[in-house]
Amino acid sequence: MKSKVNEIAISYSGSLKANLLPKITCSQSAADLAFSQWNKETIELHETFKIMLLNNANKVKGIYEASNGGITGTLVDVRILFAVLLKSLTTAVILLHNHPSGTLKPSEADKNLTEKIKKAGKLFDIKVLDHLILSPDGDYYSFADNGIL
């Protein structure tokens, strides 16, 4: 009897031309773009974790929602996060999540997750450029700007 296995298909589809993609030049430009794409109806209700996928010129290929959680936290499966990064041939990433309370101070869990993703990124030559925490009013905290990346 012959064994059978599933065939795996992997794809990425980007419809915008590279010259039309927004370029990230600093934490403020990343935060502005992330906030403009965030669902304003839920930003102060629950935490959401997203990743901003960048090409080698720091142009945004897209934003992917990796996790939706509760009032005080959300779980991120790093394997799924890297499946998306690798599938999209991303060379750099900016981590994004919101704090519904408006508090911009990163928790120990935020710092630990950032370090875990950063270490995994080194294995695949994917740079973690920043981790931004957004508040419902549009303020943000940048790990890179505050020297904890």
From TrEMBL:
Looking up InterPro entries in the UniProt record yields: MPN, RadC_JAB, UPF0758, UPF0758_CS
Domain of life of the organism encoding this protein: Bacteria
**CDD domains assigned to the protein according to its UniProt record, in alphabetical order:** MPN_DUF2466 (cd08071)
Gene3D superfamilies the UniProt entry points to: Cytidine Deaminase, domain 2
Q: Does the keyword Hydrolase apply?
A: yes
Protein's UniProt keywords contain Nucleotidyltransferase: no
Residues in domain MPN? 24-149
Keywords assigned by UniProt, alphabetized: Hydrolase, Metal-binding, Metalloprotease, Protease, Zinc
Name the UniProt record assigns to this protein: RadC family protein
